[in-house]
Amino acid sequence: MKAKKFLAIAICMAVLAVTASLPTSSVATPILLDFGSTSDSAFNTDLEMRYSGVATGINATLTADAAFNGFNSNQNANNGSVNGDIRVNMTFFESDGTTPQSVALTLKLWDATDGDGYTSLYNPVGDYDYTLAFYDIDRDSNDQPVTNPSIDVVTLMDQGTYSVTATTQLDIDTSVAGQATFRPDATVLDDVPGQGGLSSPITQEQANVMVLYNIMNSSSVSFIYGIEAEAGTNSVRNLLIDGGDLANATCSDVTGGDCGFETPVNVVPIPGAVWLLGSGLMGMVAIRKKKRG
Questions:
Q1: Rg (CA), the chain
Q2: Residue 257 domain-assigned?
Q3: pTM score, two decimals?
Q4: Structural domain of residue 43, as residue ranges?
């Protein structure tokens, strides 16, 4: 009897934990984010870019991790946004000239009606979601041998779901718990057009180096952008982030226009409470079987 009571309590706790960790409703209000066209040449020093009026009542910021050594891009004016999409521009090396660059970035949505518009995080009544499209995740081999290119690397690490095409040309590394890292695979031999911003329709090639990332009920999203290459490579790379337009993009060079994005996958594994709930239910079944026997 004590075992059954303990099991019942454990199941109840698991159910409460699961409920708290999941959205409260399956119906969410979609938000389309437009980051405009801006240039922020100071991003390499103040490590923050601001975007006003990205949606009704919403402002946004993109900040670099405080520990980051600074952007050393020779094209700082490209930091900001283009065609409604965020653009981050950086060179391969940090200031020491030898260390590959990698920076932790955080995108935050702010309540534009409070204070200066960057005082309180966006927190509406009811569920909401938005989809970020990370694109132009490719390589630069124009001035390098194909065996020694510089490549973009993006790591997602928040609660959210990602989707790539069935013919994706991105290698996906999920060996680190709670993270998904994307790199162009060996079939991406050169720059894929996109650094000037994209709008639908796009090409299948452009869709194949894109990741759709859906976020629900969170005003803050963190990720890592870096550049990898063998020693001696030094080039300028770009990462672009769309705020929703490309989530339903069509591919002009595909019959029917379907780019072929697959079923979304969770970046962060199912909460441990779910497994606890499953274990509890299995335990209850075992107890009942034993009693019957």
A1: 22
A2: yes
A3: 0.81
A4: 29-273
